[in-house]
Amino acid sequence: MTIPKHEPREVFDRAIEHTRALSPATFDQWFGGVQFDDLTDGVLTLRVQNEFVLEWVRDNFLPALTDKIRELTGWSVQVAWTVDQNLDAPIAQRVELTPVRPRALVVRPTSAAPAPAPRPEPALRRVPSMPDDLNPKHTFASFVVGPSNQLAHAAAIAAAGGGGRRYNPLFICGGTGLGKTHLMHAIAHRVFEGRPDARIIYVSAEKFTNDFITAIQHHRMDEFRTRYRSSCDVLLVDDIQFLAGREQTQEEFFHTFNALHTLDRQIVVTSDKYPQNLERMEERLVSRFSWGLVADIQVPELETRVAIVRNKAALEGIALTDDVALYLAQMVRSNVRELEGTLIRLAAKSSLTGRPVDLPFARAEITATSPPRAQMMSVEDIQRAVCHHFHLRSIDLTSKDRHKSVAFARHVAMYLCKQRLKCSFPEIGRAFGNRDHTTVMSAVRKIEAQRDSDPQVRAHLEALEKKLADE
C-alpha cells in the first residue's frame, strides 16, 4: 500500500527495513556511519561520516533504497549528501533500537504536539506568501536528473537549503525548454516549504524591467527598492539576457544584486547563454554573475529523455509502453518541452480517436507531423557525409588520430551533430570514440568561431549542409 507522501519518516523507515533485509550484517556495518536528515519533495538528504562510507553506500545500497522509496511514494528520488564526522543518530543504531524520532529529524509537527509559537511580525511587514506564477508541478520530485543537468540540479537543491555547498549567485544557463524554469520553480517551492516565512521573489527579467519603469513613472522607487532589496530573502530572475541594452535597468539590477549579496540573500538567475557570451550587458554585471557557480544544462541524452517521457506520462496519467517511450525519445531530441508536448499531443489524439498510444500509432502521428529527413537523420549520416566530403574513412572520425586534417573533419562532424540533431555533448562524445563531453564542447565552439571568421571553413560547412539537406 502506498504511504502518504507527508509521512517522510515512515516512508524512509519502510525503505530502510527493506534494504537491511538484503544483507543485515553488511548493512549494520556501513549504516553505522550514515544518518537520515530529511526526505522532502523527492529529495533524500543523508549525512555520512566520510567519503569512503558515502561511496560504498551509494554503490551497494542506494539503488535498493531509492527504488523502495519510489515504489512507496511514486517520487523520482534524488539524493543530497552531507559529509559530517559527528552523527547524532546513525541509521544502524536506530534500526536496532526502538524507533524513536530524533529531534533533528522531525519534518513537521504532529497534531498531538503543540504548535510552536509564531514569531511576531513587525506591524507594517507584509505576510510572506508563495509567488502566484509558480507551476505546482515544477518541483524537484518531478525533475528528471541525468548527466546533462546533474550539476544544475544539485546546485539548485543547495540554493534551496537542501544540503551541500550553497553558491551565491547561482547562474543556470541552457537552451530553450531544457528545464531552467522548472528548477527555478522547484527552488521556490522547496524554500517556501522549509521556511514559510521566507520572502521569495520570482520574476522574469522583463517583469523586473516593467516594475522598474512603473516605479519611475509613479514616483515609487523607494517602494520598489524595499521590495527587491530589504524585503527579499530569495531573488529568482528568469531569462536575464533580456536586460541586454537596457542600461538604466541594468544599473538598478546591479545595485539590487549588491544589496542582496551583501546580506547573503540567495540570488538565482537563468539565461540562454553563458555570462561571458551575454551581449550588451555591463561588464560589472557579467563579472558578478560568475562570482558563484555557473551551471549549464545541455540537451538530455537518450536515457534521460526516456525517463522524462515516462515521468511525464505518469504525472498525466497516460498509459505508455516502454517501446513507445523509447521511440519518442529517439525521435524528439531538441528539448524537454518539445518532447513532453509530443507526448501530450499523442495522448490527446488517442483520446479523440479511441486508439491506444502504441508504437504504430506513435509512428504514424510523428511521421505525419515531422519533416521526413528530420526523422531519419542520424549521427552516422553526418559522419558518412563528412568522410565523403573530406575523403576520409569512417573509422578516422572515431580513432585517436590527431592529424590536423582528421581533427578538423572530426570537429566539423561534431559541430553538425550538435546543430542539426541537437544531440547532447555526452551523446556526441560516445559516437566519436567515447570522447569526453568537454572535448566535444571545445570542438563545437571552435568551429562556431571559425565559421564567423574563416571563409574556407564557412564554405566547407555550407557544402556539407547543402549535401545533408538534399539527401
Automatic annotation (TrEMBL):
InterPro entries xrefs: AAA+_ATPase (IPR003593), Chromosome_initiator_DnaA (IPR001957), Chromosome_initiator_DnaA-like (IPR020591), Chromosome_initiator_DnaA_CS (IPR018312), DnaA_C (IPR013159), DnaA_dom (IPR013317), DnaA_N_dom (IPR024633), DnaA_N_sf (IPR038454)
GO terms, molecular function: ATP binding; DNA replication origin binding; lipid binding
Renumbered residue ranges of the record's region Domain I, interacts with DnaA modulators: 1-111
BP terms from Gene Ontology: DNA replication initiation; regulation of DNA replication
Residues annotated as domain Chromosomal replication initiator DnaA C-terminal: 378-447
KW Cell inner membrane (keyword) present: no
Pfam family, any one: Bac_DnaA_C
Keywords: ATP-binding, Cytoplasm, DNA replication, DNA-binding, Lipid-binding, Nucleotide-binding
AAA+ ATPase domain: residues covered: 166-296
Compartment(s): Cytoplasm
Binding site for ATP: 177, 179-181
Record carries keyword Cell inner membrane: no
One GO CC annotation: plasma membrane
Region (Domain IV, binds dsDNA): 351-471
Chain's role: Plays an essential role in the initiation and regulation of chromosomal replication. ATP-DnaA binds to the origin of replication (oriC) to initiate formation of the DNA replication initiation complex once per cell cycle. Binds the DnaA box (a 9 base pair repeat at the origin) and separates the double-stranded (ds)DNA. Forms a right-handed helical filament on oriC DNA; dsDNA binds to the exterior of the filament while single-stranded (ss)DNA is stabiized in the filament's interior.
Domain notes: Domain I is involved in oligomerization and binding regulators, domain II is flexibile and of varying length in different bacteria, domain III forms the AAA+ region, while domain IV binds dsDNA.
Assembly with partners or alone: Oligomerizes as a right-handed, spiral filament on DNA at oriC.
Family matches, as PANTHER family: CHROMOSOMAL REPLICATION INITIATOR PROTEIN DNAA
Record-stated family: Belongs to the DnaA family.
Protein name in the entry: Chromosomal replication initiator protein DnaA
Organism: Sorangium cellulosum (strain So ce56)
Lineage: Bacteria, Pseudomonadati, Myxococcota, Polyangia, Polyangiales
Gene from which this protein is expressed: dnaA
